[in-house]
SDR family oxidoreductase
Amino acid sequence: MNQLLEDKVVLVNGGSQGVGAGIVRVALREGATVAFTGRRTELGEKFAAETGATFVRADLTDPAQARGSVEQVVAAHGRIDCLVNAAGLTSRGTLLDTTPELFDAHVAINLRAPFFAMQAAVQHLVDRGAPGTVVNIITSSAHGGQSFLAPYVAAKSGLMGLTRNAAHAHRWDRVRINGLNIGWTDTEGEEEIQRAFHGAGDDWREKAAKTQPMGKLGQVDEIADFVVFLLSDRSGVVTGSVIDWDQIVFGGLD
C-alpha cells in the first residue's frame, strides 16, 4: 500500500510538541515533506534535527506571521498541499474572572491564527487550481466545556464554525477542510496545565485514567494517525466535518 501522504507538502502549525509533534512524525512516516511552526527556537530546532522536518519559527498570534508560515513553506518547497492548525492555548479562565487580555490571547492563537493561516493556504491552492486539505485541531469542549474554560471555549467554538464555513465556501475548489474535537489528551502541555492550575502531583495521569471509560487519556499517536488519514486522499470526499474524537458521548445521559 502506498504511503498516505506520498509527495505531499504539509505544514503543521504548532508542531514542535504535543499533538502537533505527533502529527509531524506520522506525516513524515506517511511520505510527506513536512514543515512545522513554533515560537521557541531551541525546541523547534531540536525537533527538526531529530525528525528531518523543517522548522519555521513563527508567532502565530501575529496574523502576518500566521500567513507567513504558509508563504515560507511555499517559497521553500514550491507549494503546500496540506495544512494542520494544531497550535493552542488552554490557560484557565471563567466568565467572571477572565480579563480582556486573557480573552484576547485565546482568540489570537485559537481562532485568529488558524483563520489567517487558512486564508493563505486556501488562496495558494485556489491560485494553483489544485486540491488540498486542512485539518483544524479543535476541542470537545467547544460543545460547552467546563466553567473554567470560558475564553478557550469561546475561541474554539468559533473555530468549529469557521471550519464548516470555509469548507462550504471552498468545496468547489476541491479544498477539503475538516476539524477534530479532541478530548482530554496526554501531552506535555496538559502536564503543565495540570500542575499549574490543578495542583497535580506526579501520579496525575494514573488518577485521570481511572476516571475515563477507556481507562486512559487520549493518546497523541492515535490522534495523529486520524489527522493524517483526514489529510490524505483515503478520506475521500469528506469535508466540513467536525468529528468528536473523545470518549464522552455528547447528549448521552445516565
Summary: The helical segments are 18-29, 41-51, 63-77, 100-128, 150-169, 188-198, 204-210, 220-231. The beta strands are 9-13, 33-38, 54-57, 82-85, 132-137, 175-182, 242-245. The chain has a mean pLDDT of 94.
